[in-house]
Each structure stands twice: as structure tokens, then as C-alpha cells.
Amino acid sequence: MLVLGIESSCDDTAAAVLDEGRVLASVLSSQDELHSPYGGVVPELASRKHVQAINVIVARTLAEAEVSLADIELVAATQGPGLIGSLLVGFSYAKALSFFHKIPMVGVDHMAGHLLAIFLEQQEIQFPFIALIVSGGTTALFRADDFTTFHHLGRTRDDAAGEAFDKVAKLLDLPYPGGPHVASRSAGGDPEKIRFPRAWLAEGSLDFSFSGVKTAVLNHVNTLTSPVSSAQLADICASFQEAVVDVLVEKTLLAAKQQNCRTVVIGGGVAANARLRESMQRRCRERGLSFFAPAPNYCTDNGAMIGLAGLHKYRKTERPINFTEDVYSRSQLG
Ligand code: KG4
Predict the structure, then answer these.
(1) CA triple 188-189-194, angle to 5 deg
(2) What φ, ψ does residue 48 adopt, rounded to 5°?
(3) Mapping DSSP to helix (H, G, I), strand (E, B) and coil, where does residue 133 land?
(4) What distance in angstroms lies between residue 228's CA and the mean position of ligand 1's atoms?
(5) Cα-to-chain-centroid distance, residue 57
(6) CA-based R_g, the chain, Å
(7) pTM greater than 0.70 (yes/no)
């Protein structure tokens, strides 16, 4: 089945064409430059930019895949969670394509896309597995039982891990989006130099909290005589990153133990973080668990994961969307 996947939940306009789950083309237009001066996504600017980009991105994706709309058998678009204005652009565009070209359409939960992104490259992963989804808007743990059944195990009570990276970058005067900049500035820094707090919450809890570590970084920076030297910056970035990674890894291993799962998968933008991947890989190996991480371009938002999640949803339900269905801002996976 040829699927067109469309993603516009936040600040990336993305589309992909998949043939039986294999990616033929995946194209993305990033808005990083647009939002960079503000240090975060400005929702109204994001939706306007999606309007400008969507048609061009879909046309380019079809051309790269060497198919036309007449060949597409299913349109899958992100229905939520995300910024309502941004979601509306991709979702309404997909509805129009579906209606005009008489192609069935499904709405996809963005989280399901991140949960299944690993299957864009690896087919041999066994269910059930524990998935840690870490992005700019979410930090959550799930148990995936099959391609459409996901059990929510824990979530952040305040900031998402990516949001903490972005806010720390902002207070250190690093560009937006901050995650990759904090990660690259941490190279050569000492991750043990500053012992930033780790919020474990109640014993056995699979919830997260990252607002404390962010405030601790602010308090630490306020004790320094400015300007912060590049060696100090490296130590702060490395120590902050270590605090976040420690909590993400330990809670994921705890989830695997509690749920008796032997496989761990990560997804979402922060899953591109090299230190997280390295640490998760090492700790999983020590515990005899299998660990899988998507290629970095499939960790961050993309249309391919939405196409794949849409394919599985449609195969299970065989039910195209009702055009009165709307977008939603909070994930419906729990
Ligand atoms: O999944 P994603 O592309 O989309 C949204 O959440 O909208 O994730 C983006 C987030 C941002 O917060 C960004 O700073 C973070 O992922 N991120 C990283 C890295 N690459 C992206 N955080 C830490 N290390 C990275 N290498």
C-alpha cells in the first residue's frame, strides 16, 4: 500500500511516501531559523509558515518518490498532540486531498509515530517493548504490545526533557533549538563537575520532573562572575545533560523491570542525543536487554513515522476518517 504521511504538529512541515512501510521519500522544511530570535516556537508564526510550505513539501515528496497523487492509497496526517494552529494546517490539507482525490485518510497520534519510528529501519524488533518518548513537548514511557496497542506508564509532571534542554540553552545564550547546542557544548566538559539534582519522585514512580534541574542550572549560573568561560559552559552543559540522561535511563530500566520487558526503544527529538543513546545502550547491555534507537532524522519530527503509524492504524481498523473529526492538543494514547 502506498501511503502519504503528513506532519505539521509543531515547527516542522514534513511529508513522506511509503510503500508497504518502506520509505520512498521523506522531505522536511524546518522553521528553526524563523523561531530562533524568540528562543522558542511562536505558534502563530508556525502555523502561517506551515500554510506557505505544505503544498511545496508534499509536491516535492511525491516527485522524489516518483509517484503521483493518483497512486496514493492512503493519506495519514498528524491529528494531535501539538499546537492547534499548526496541526490544523496539515490535517485540513490532508482532508482536502482525501476528499478531492477520493483517497482514504486516517488521523495519527504523533506519539504513535514516535513509538513506531524504529520500524522505519529495523523490522526484527519483538513486542512487547518499553518505549521512552522524549521530545520538546513530551517525556513519556509506554509499553507497546503491538503496532496499535500502547500502554501509558509515566509522563513528565512539568517540563519535557527537550523543553528543559531548550530553556537551559536560552539561559546560557545558546541558539534555538537548544538540545543539539547543549549537547555539542558539553563535549570536553566534565559531567561530574556540578551535581545538578535528579528528580526520582516517589519510589517506583515512572513519572518525570525536569523543572528543578532547569532552576538549579539558573541558580548555578547566577553564582558565577560573568562572562561564563567556555570551559565553565562545557562543564555546565555536560553536568546538566548527565542529570537529565541519568533520570531518563534509570526510569526506563525501571519500567522494563516492572513490566518484565526485555526490549527498550527510544524516540522523539531528544533521542538524537548521543550521550542518552550511549548511556542507554551501556545500561541495557549490563541488564541483558536489547536496545534500539532510530537514526537521528527519524527521532525528530518527520512524515515517515506518521505514514507508518497511519498504515498500521488503517490496517487494523479499515476505517477512514470522518471529515467532522478535529485536531487535538493532548495525546490520546493516555
Ligand atoms: O521530536 P521533536 O523534533 O519535536 C518536538 O517536540 O516538537 O523534538 C525537538 C526537541 C527540541 O526540544 C530539541 O532541543 C531536542 O528535541 N533535541 C535534542 C537533541 N536534538 C534535538 N535534545 C538533546 N540533544 C539533542 N541532540
Answers:
(1) 170
(2) -65, -40
(3) strand
(4) 25
(5) 20
(6) 20
(7) yes
Question: Measured between alpha carbons, how far is 263 from 290 in angstroms, rounded to an integer?
Answer: 5
From the list 69, 81, 133, 75, the residue with the least C-alpha distance to 104 is: 75
Reported as a single tens digit per residue, the pLDDT across 223-280 is: 998 788 999 999 999 999 999 999 999 999 999 999 999 999 999 999 999 999 999 9
Evaluate: CB of 162 within 6 angstroms of ligand 1: yes
Pairing outcome for strands 150-155 and 139-144: antiparallel
Amino acid at 270: V
Q: How many CB atoms lie within 10 A of CB 281?
A: 16
- What is the rounded CA–CA span in Å between residue 24 and residue 29? 17
**What's the CA-to-centroid distance between 174 and ligand 1, angstroms?**
14
Buried b or exposed e, range 225-259, using 16+ CB within 10 angstroms: eeeeeeebbbbbbbbbbbbbbbbbbebbbbbbeeb
Residue 270 Cα to ligand 1 middle (Å): 5
Does ligand 1 lie within 6 Å of residue 165's CB atom?
yes
CA distance 107 to 7: 11
Whether the CB of 26 sits within 6 Å of ligand 1:
no
Helix (H) or strand (E) holding 47: helix 43-65
